[in-house]
Amino acid sequence: EIVLTQSPGTLSLSPGERATLSCRASQSVSSTYLAWYQQKPGQAPRLLIYGASSRATGIPDRFSGSGSGTDFTLTISRLEPEDFAVYYCQQYGSSPPVTFGQGTRLEIK
Amino acid sequence: QVQLQESGPGLVKPSETLSLTCAVSGYSITSGYNWGWIRQPPGKGLEWIGSIYHSGSTYYNPSLNSRVTISVDTSKNQFSLKLSSVTAADTAVYYCARLATSGAAAGSYDYWGQGTLVTVSS
After folding, report:
1. Among A34, A37, A99, beta carbon nearest to B48
2. I need a labelling partner for A14 at 20 to 30 A (CA). Which of A44, A109, B28, B71 fits?
3. Interface with B, mutate which of A50, A87, A99, A104 (most B CBs under 10 A)
């Protein structure tokens, strides 16, 4: 089973700052099958990034994804108030087919 | 517009079977994609439960494998989850979602239901 470890667990930043979230896999993951989600309280997760670096429909360009192999990064270039939420990475393909990271909470400093 | 909507009892007794249904609108389940269930215990992260392909093939989380059954009802364009022998640890918000298995967004869940809280308690 591929384990995804996200860091940090909590990130405290101010609006306007840059956020860098990490997702590390226990085994190599195909970039094609690495996604990032944003979840706000009381809401379902929303797809932000698929294929490690492609933004989903309607996602602002301040969100970007990068990485390959076992190390992936979600970057938010300039934080807006609505960006403070929990972020999850997810991989698809290895047995079991789907695993999620434990999440990174992005909170207002 | 693709929409998913979970339904089912919000309270289940310990040792009984949790049953949920996900009604899909705006897309035919038989046309493709993978249809899955994900849960989230209160205050915790996301846990993948399992999924069913449009072909009918199923895949389950090994940690739940012996207790999970996912099935599809093509006549109603919906799929269902059954989780047997539940305990308090199965208390969670249960989401259904659509996962792309081909194309640019392959491997990602692009549409989600709003989620439904299921509490296991006597």
Report:
1. A99
2. A44
3. A50
Look at phi and psi of residue B17 and say left if phi exceeds 0, alpha if psi is from -120 to 50, else beta. beta
pLDDT in tens, A43-64: 999 999 999 999 999 999 999 9
Name residue A87's amino acid. Answer: Y
Residues B98, B3 contacting (CB under 8 angstroms):
no
* B11–A contact, CB cutoff 8 A: no
Report residue B80 as tokens. 């269902």
**How many other C-beta atoms can be found within 10 angstroms of the C-beta atom of residue B41?**
14
CA–CA distance, B100 with A54 (Å, rounded to integer): 14
- Mean pLDDT of the region B9-33: 95
